[in-house]
Design goal:
Elements: E1 13-25, E2 31-43, E3 47-51, H1 58-65, E4 73-78, E5 81-85, H2 88-117, H3 122-182, H4 187-205, E6 213-216, H5 230-241, H6 246-259, H7 276-288, E7 294-298, H8 306-323, E8 326-331, H9 334-340, E9 343-348, E10 351-357, H10 358-363, H11 368-375, H12 382-387, H13 395-398, E11 407-412, E12 415-419, H14 421-431
Parallel strand pairs: 3-8, 3-9, 6-7, 7-8
Antiparallel strand pairs: 1-2, 1-4, 4-5, 9-10, 10-12, 11-12
């Protein structure tokens, strides 16, 4: 496990989300667009905050990334390997291409019939239109074939990314074993090396790339099995991974318990014997023991008392610094996110509406929804609270997208807004970027 000091390039992208869509069926011909065309990336070693009101799609985004849902469309790349791939966009594009092909062929046939009706020679028109129709079929055939190949590739990555990753790990471990065997001086050393690598190869075969991503859930009691001891809960991932050495597992469990502020005596207790803060520490321990590179923290403090929230946030910060973790921090409390995050993405009704570095977002909030969220943050200052103005976000009143549709645009370096051209020009003027 790499330490933070060993992270050479902070700009190295660990997770990349491209045009993520997660739709849920709601009956015949209806669906809920929980996440709709969301794109962002997370750099190695940073904390990326994802905020928004309840129901905006931030939790669904996290669950989609870790493959608890099969995404509808888009792609998710982890360590430059695609781990999630939806096929809806390819299916829609193939359907449109076929419809366009049929429309063009019908238009050619209609044009031919009209020319025949004007008395032009059939012997001249037939070869011409056969050639033109063949050209249309060939052009759309190539496009449909390309889309079909992309759809098949997306299907493969969605279903077999873990197996592809384990194959790479087995190949890497085999090469490492062969190099170790070549350096052995005698048969006894070779036999010892083979025994050592036998377990390593067995574990490598069971490696899954998604194991490098772990999740901390919102409700600490609902996410822990009440029939399992703390030891079994924390060690479950190691057992599934294929580790059989009970002494090694116990030492790992004891070590991780101490890292999260618990003691080894807690290992033999059950979840109901702990407070809410302690249960969340157990959830954190269960995630960290797998030595992940990315942790998705889904509102890890929202179910806890305010006095305990700071302890858990400080614990996450300490573990991040010690282990060099990358964190996707999902929350609706902007004051917590500001303290903990390097960059923040703001979501509203399944859309990413603003994305910026933490300090920049709080210094220059541009989207009306972001301003509304910031105006709702209370401060322990009676004078401030007495004069605090709340901004209510009404999308119908704030935006006119009837002519010019909005897209994500970069208004200043690293600061992105979901807006149309007129709003983009206005935001640039507010920042003084056009001066």
């Amino acid at each position: 496990m790499e330490n933070k000091e060993n992270i050479e390039n902070r700009d190295d992208v660990l997770l990349r989300v491209e045009h993520l869509c997660q739709y849920f069926p709601m009956g015949p011909g209806r669906e809920l667009k929980a996440v709709d065309d969301v794109s962002f990336d997370i750099k190695r070693g940073e904390v990326f905050g994802l905020v928004g009101e309840s129901g905006c799609g931030k939790t669904t985004t996290g669950r989609s990334i870790i493959k608890l849902y099969d995404i509808t469309s888009g792609s998710v790349y982890f360590k430059d390997q695609r781990i999630c791939a939806g096929t809806r966009s390819y299916k829609d594009a193939i359907k449109k291409a076929r419809a366009d092909r049929a429309a063009e062929i019908a238009a050619l046939k209609k044009e031919k019939a009209e020319r025949l009706g004007r008395g032009e020679e059939n012997d001249v028109l037939v070869p011409e239109y056969l050639r033109r129709i063949d050209e249309v079929k060939s052009r759309y055939g190539a496009e449909i074939y390309k889309l079909s190949m992309q759809k098949a590739e997306a299907n493969h990555d969605q279903k077999h990314c873990d197996h592809d990753y384990s194959d790479k790990e087995v190949a890497r471990m085999t090469a490492e074993r062969d190099a170790a065997l070549a350096a052995c001086a005698d048969d006894e050393a070779r036999a010892k090396t083979m025994r050592e690598y036998k377990d390593k190869l067995r574990i490598a075969k069971r490696e899954r790339i998604v194991n490098r991503i772990q999740m901390i859930f919102q409700d600490p009691i609902a996410s822990l099995d009440p029939r399992m001891t703390v030891r079994d809960i924390i060690a479950e991932g190691l057992v599934i991974k294929g580790i059989r050495d009970k002494k090694y597992i116990d030492e790992k469990v004891y070590g991780i318990l101490e890292k999260v502020g618990l003691v080894r005596e807690h290992a033999d207790r059950y979840p109901h014997e702990f407070s809410g803060g302690q249960r969340q520490r157990i959830g954190i321990a269960r995630s960290v023991i797998m030595e992940p590179e990315l942790i998705i923290a889904d509102e890890p403090v929202s179910a806890l008392d305010v006095s305990i929230q700071a302890q858990v946030i400080n614990l996450l910060n300490e573990i991040k610094e010690r282990l060099g973790l990358t964190i996707l921090f999902i929350a609706h409390d902007l004051s917590v996110v500001k303290y903990f995050s390097d960059r923040i993405g703001v979501m509203y009704f399944g859309k990413m509406v603003e994305l910026a570095p933490s300090d920049e977002l709080f210094a220059h909030p541009l989207h009306p929804y972001t301003r509304s969220l910031l105006s709702a943050i209370p401060l322990p200052d009676p004078n401030y609270e007495k004069n605090r103005k709340r901004f209510v976000y009404n999308p119908l009143a704030e935006h006119d997208y009837s002519v010019d549709a909005p897209v994500m645009r970069e208004v200043s370096p690293g600061h992105f807004i979901y807006c149309n051209q007129a709003e983009f020009d206005k935001y640039r003027q507010e920042l003084g970027a056009d001066k």
